[in-house]
Structures are given as C-alpha cells and as structure tokens.
Structure to design on (113 residues):
C-alpha cells in the first residue's frame, strides 16, 4: 500500500485545480401566491452533476413548489425564479474517503474477510 502522503501528493499532482472546482449543492425555488413569495430549498443530496441537477430541478420545480404551497396552506400562483448555490468541492475530503476505502479493502483482502 502506498503511504497516505505519497498517495495524496500523486493525486494532487494529477489535478491542477485541487480544491478549486465548484459544484451545485442547492437550488432555491422562489414561488409566489397572491400575497407573498416563498423560498423552497432543495439539497443535491445524491451528488448529481451540475447539468443533471439543474435539469432535474427545472423539470420538477412547479410540482415541488405546488407541494410546498400545499404544506404551507396556501395556493401556488407561479414560480418567480430558481437560484442555484455553488460550493467548492473539498478534494481533500474526497481523497480521504477514497484512501480509507482502499485501506479497508486491502486489509479485508489480506485477512480474508
């Protein structure tokens, strides 16, 4: 097994944009009734890629807003806007997860589990 430090150095050398990439993590659908506007937040929990997530939100925005209106006890009139929130991808955390999984796999392979 390659040491943690060497494996991380190799991973960082292969990616010039380490910890500089962004991903869409949340969408905020702003919808209105006859008096107010409401914000409905949707987290990208399944870690869909940006295009897939934005397409899914745009396709389902009206039905999601209508469900939120019903939950709030009001009548949905229309969607005002959809905003997408981006955060930086934590390559360090992703690397740590992958390295830990590789170590676990190697340990299980060596012990026959």
């Amino acid at each position: 097994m390659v040491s943690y430090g060497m494996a991380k150095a190799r991973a960082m050398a292969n990616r010039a944009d380490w910890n500089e990439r962004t991903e869409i993590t949340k969408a905020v659908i702003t919808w209105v009734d006859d008096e107010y506007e409401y914000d409905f937040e949707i987290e990208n929990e399944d870690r869909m890629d940006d295009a897939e997530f934005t397409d899914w939100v745009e396709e389902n925005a009206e039905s999601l807003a209508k469900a939120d209106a019903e939950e709030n006890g009001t009548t949905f009139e229309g969607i005002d806007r959809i905003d997408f929130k981006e955060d930086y991808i934590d390559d360090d955390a992703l690397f740590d997860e992958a390295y830990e999984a590789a170590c676990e796999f190697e340990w299980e392979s060596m012990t026959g589990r």
Observations:
- Residues 18 and 103 are 22 Å apart (CA to CA).
- The longest helix spans residues 50-71.
- The first strand starts at residue 22 and ends at 32.
- Strands lie at 22-32, 37-43, 78-88.
